[in-house]
Amino acid sequence: MRIAILSHLRFPIGPPFTGGLERHTHLLASGLRARGHEVALFAAEGSDPALRPIPVCPPIGAATGDPRADAASAAREAAAYAQMLRRVAAGGFEIVHNNCLHEATLAGPLPAPMALTLHVPPWEPFASALRQAAARIDIVAVSSHLARVWSGVAPRIAVIGNGVDLAAFAPNLAPARPPYALWSGRVSPEKGLHLAIDAARLAGMPLRFAGARVCQEYWDSAIAPRLGLGVTDLGHLGETDLTRQLREARVAVVSPVWEEPFGLVVAEALACGTPVAGFRRGALQDILDTATGRLAEPGDVAGLARAIAEAARLDRAACRARAESTLDARLMIERYEALYAEMSATRRGRDVSTDQFSSSIASTFSG
């Protein structure tokens, strides 16, 4: 199949990954290509050359908090998506997979049927745009929890859970001594690193953390003051180094302050044989069971400290077994292939010509 994947343009698609969306996009593109599909990844400049991406623009970057600068970035981003869609419309693709989560990419029907994967809870103006486009798009959520959250916007949502490349995360049944906990992810308010630091200290477990700093204000106000004895900043690690740290950790800590839509770090930890301690938020309770993790009530630092201590004693072989049975990326790719085949058979959107699409996108962005 000839498949176009639309990536978001804020960050490049390649290691070291800024977050789970970038990682998912990379795995989807590489996994589909490995299974013989012709994949065109439309992405920001600087993306992994191994994917043979089609560069759209320089990375837009995260919001800065400066209204004028952010408005200018938003205008550049919308224009870049309009350019992306025009190129996709003329590309002769059989399937378009929308993985960018931007309302501009829902502006009008394309000549090929579109699948869209939801990775985060609803927000405006994307939710309103999706409500208008839902009838002509095959919508997927990465967890049952997330599908329920979006049900008021789009009642017809399939669920295809995220997966990880199990071969890249060899299990380690003998973690490092002395023991430590590991936190990894974007260093941003919604990921709750400050709570993980407090809980690990309360549990008496040294904490190492790794990730991209995407919010300097959060770092300065909530993280920098907590640095010190028992807390080690590993920086933004490459894949090899991050995997090694995860394999050696006694427990992985996941401390979101929002309803986590999936949590790829949970899947990666289990693949390494590393049990998880976290908050009972979002999809974490779908991924973990009592053999592989412990969950505290949201925001309960003392409860998370107890969860860290209890999870550290869980059977690491059981963690790997759960990853193999439920979180294998090959299963994820197979499910997307089945969806594409169904979409192709019904040929949704095939009656929309390139000229019709060009008129639609032009009217959408003319204002």
Automatic annotation (TrEMBL):
Residues 19-167 form the Glycosyltransferase subfamily 4-like N-terminal domain. Keywords: Transferase. The keyword Iron-sulfur does not apply. InterPro entries: Glyco_trans_1, Glyco_trans_4-like_N. Residues 170-315 form the Glycosyl transferase family domain. Transmembrane segments: none annotated. This is Glycosyltransferase involved in cell wall biosynthesis. It comes from Enterovirga rhinocerotis.
